[in-house]
Amino acid sequence: MNILVCDDDKEIVDAIQIYLENEGYKIFKAYNGEEVLKMIEDNEIHLIIMDVMMPRMDGLRATMKIREENNVPVIMLSAKSEDTDKIVGLNLGADDYISKPFNPIELIARVKSQLRRYTTLGSLETKSYLYRTGGLVIDDESKTVTIDGDEIHLTPVQYKILKLLTANAGRVFSIDEIYEKVWQETAFSPENTVTVHIRKIREKIEINPKEPKYLKVVWGIGYKVEKLQPFANN
Q1: How large a percentage of the chain has pLDDT more than 90?
Q2: Distance between CA atoms of 147 and 112, rounded to whole angstroms?
Q3: Among 133, 169, 138, which residue's Cα sits nearest to residue 152?
Q4: Start and end residues for every CATH 3.40.50.2300 domain found in the chain
């Protein structure tokens, strides 16, 4: 997931970059509102963390411009803690607000919360290269997989299997079908090969692989990814 961090204080930008890169996010950096507007035109940005007070164009004006045609989540940063500043920022289109100095753990939690909401309810679900069921999102453009906003690292074969099943959520694929579609060759006794990859995928995407939420076996037939609604509990 791509996060744009903007503050006229370079040290703050660099610090946030370290915190979020440690969580697996890709960081873009800007130092005023004008740079933010240019950056989101040229890049696929999934969340913006932006200071209120900046030269050339402040965060409030930048947020107003962003909201004219983009619903990317915006978390505002400010040294001010007055409720009036928070209310102004939220009324202009910001999604969340954090006062400086901030706790890195709190910042990361708010980032994950906003990304969860965006990937399940926001504009990502309308794009043809994105496949989603419940909190599982596959971005076939960047070749990334996230569960509730957290990126999951798969091998190329694991990615192809999960993409096949998620793009056809609810449909059961036989082992032969999975093998032929992923490996692009006729299946000859592929059961062990496919089963091993399925097990590895489950270990990465499921909270409890023995009671999977997403990737399930249909005994005697094959495998499927469940078709789930956002925030489904089943």
Answers
A1: 55
A2: 11
A3: 138
A4: 2-126
